[in-house]
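Duplicate of earlier report; Peptidase M50 domain-containing protein input re-posted below.
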Amino acid sequence: MPVSPVREATLALGGPAASILFGGLAAILWSWARAGSFLPGFALLGLAAASLILGLVNLLPGHPLDGGRILTSLLFYLHGSSSASWKVALAFGRLMALFLLGLALMLLQAHPAAALAGLWLGWLGWSLGRSLRWEHLRLTAATVGRTRPAASLIGVQARVQADQPIGEIADTLLAADRAPLALVLDGDAVIGVLAADQLAPALRRRVDEPARRAMVPIERLPQVGGQEPAVCAFEALLDSGAPAIAVTEGQRVIGALALGSLSRLLRLQQSAHSTAVADKSG
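Output:
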């Protein structure tokens, strides 16, 4: 059951509010303890500062922070468009990530005493930017992937034999018109997947190493039915952390999707969808 914008905003506010409340409590205890022992007072001061900063940063209006969820809920409440609200919050999130990285650089150059704070803010900005990438891909999958079956995103995939040396298949696998992975076959049966990013370490070992030595066995990969929405493949791939997901038709593997190929194809589908909508409105 969908959560109302007001309830979503209330739930999102809970985390930052708890951090700020905890920080305030630690600050009160610090004011009582500073006249006594130095070490407990110093620890309470650090705890208060960290909790307050964490709560305030979490209120910044950008995804995936709680402030971004609050902003999304507010925009959805005012305008009624969930997709547009997410896009605005993601844009604010990018600005927040750039702001934190810029502030980190300023602190690192300002004074050696501010180096620790600068490093922490830099790590926070980098983490926020990395999280934004996944949030953007999730939004793309949610808006486009629900109407496209997973099988339609497979595209042209290389098929190589398990005993074929990887030196022979490198050019095929890295071809621009193909998805960045190959299905590894033993006869006609798919037994594994070889992704482009696995080639470099394998080639450094031995160019005559067979594909079966460098591949990821098919049984280690999550699976999704070819007629299931592409968003299901995307979410399963993200949740599993696997390098690829196998697309099946009945008991037969008909292809595989890596995160890079899936996100790229979903963006192409979204672009085509936007063009079609613009043509109809024109």
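The first strand starts at residue 158 and ends at 161.

Merging into the original ticket.
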